[in-house]
């Protein structure tokens, strides 16, 4: 006895276009092409990324407009390549003996410096008891244990509001996490071995000055860790050496 059965499932998809985002930027680039043993390139971006993709309150007619968490208004990148002017084909000591040239010649130094604004921060459904301008601390007063001024918030859990309309924005352009700035460098040495083979030595130092970029601080006022930084966002200085022979 075989019984066949089937059922039809009806489904429907609902699409709405209630939100929006906008990005505007100014890009500036300065470049000096390779000549006289060096090249130089700088690029700078000044931008603003706004969005309205979430409701502040369930009954709101439209999403609230706020700065995006992907807004980084300033981004700077500088790259330099310099051929150390010693040895065969260079400005100084071009007629070195091949053994001496193997030591002094063929060096190249390069680096990339990058700097970028931090991420815009928000505090959720918080109770602000002071002025927004008082939240940001001067740079020389910011520490991992107190990244911003926590005294302008009501932090008592039992006093948080339950039935109300939220008015505090999702994020603030003037209140940001730690931005980053670091320098990556590379020292390259090439030399000929016989008629066909080439030797390459490379020394790289990433984040040369071991600059720390802090992760965003805790932004939940009722948390015991409010205003503190508990992690590092970037990697510490790394140095690596590589050898390569091509033939």
Describe this structure as you would to a colleague.
There is one protein chain. The N terminus is likely disordered. The chain is built from one helix and ten strands, in the order ββββαββββββ. It has 247 residues and is mainly beta.
Keywords:
single chain; 247 residues; mainly beta; eight-stranded antiparallel beta sheet; two-stranded antiparallel sheet; 3% helix
The low-confidence parts are 1-10
Q: Profile the largest sheet.
A: 8 strands, antiparallel
Tell me the span between the first and last alpha carbons.
76 Å
State the total count of DSSP E strands.
10
Strand portion: 35-45%
Overall SS class? mainly beta
Mean pLDDT: 88
> Helix amount, in percent?
under 10%
Order of helices and strands: EEEEHEEEEEE
Radius of gyration, whole Å: 28 Å
Number of helices: 1
Shape: elongated
Could you give the topology of this structure?
Blueprint: E1 20-35, E2 38-52, E3 66-67, E4 74-83, H1 98-104, E5 107-116, E6 120-121, E7 172-176, E8 180-193, E9 197-206, E10 238-246
Antiparallel strand pairs: 1-2, 2-3, 2-4, 4-5, 5-8, 6-7, 8-9, 9-10
Summarize the structure.
The protein is mainly beta.
């Amino acid at each position: 006895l075989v019984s066949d059965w089937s059922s039809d499932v009806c489904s429907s998809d609902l699409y709405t276009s209630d939100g929006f985002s906008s990005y505007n930027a100014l890009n500036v680039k300065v470049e000096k092409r390779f000549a006289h043993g060096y090249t130089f390139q700088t690029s700078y971006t000044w931008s603003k990324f706004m969005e309205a993709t979430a409701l502040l309150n369930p009954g709101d007619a439209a999403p609230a407009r706020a700065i995006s968490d992907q807004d980084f208004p300033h981004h700077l990148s500088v790259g330099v390549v310099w051929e150390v002017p010693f040895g065969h084909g260079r400005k100084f000591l071009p007629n070195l003996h091949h053994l001496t040239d193997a030591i002094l010649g063929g060096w190249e130094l390069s680096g990339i410096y990058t700097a970028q604004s931090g991420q815009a921060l928000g505090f959720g459904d918080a109770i602000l008891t002071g002025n927004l301008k008082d939240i940001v601390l001067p740079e020389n007063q910011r520490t991992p244990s107190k990244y911003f001024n926590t005294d302008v918030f009501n932090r008592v859990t039992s006093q948080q509001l339950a039935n109300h309309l939220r008015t505090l924005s999702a994020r603030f352009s003037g209140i940001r996490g730690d931005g980053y700035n670091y320098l990556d460098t590379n020292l390259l040495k090439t030399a000929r071995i016989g008629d066909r083979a080439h030797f390459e030595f490379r020394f790289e130092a990433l984040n040369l000055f071991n600059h720390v970029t802090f992760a965003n601080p805790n932004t939940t006022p009722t948390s015991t860790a409010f205003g503190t930084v508990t992690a590092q966002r970037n990697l510490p200085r790394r140095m690596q050496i590589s050898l390569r022979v091509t033939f």
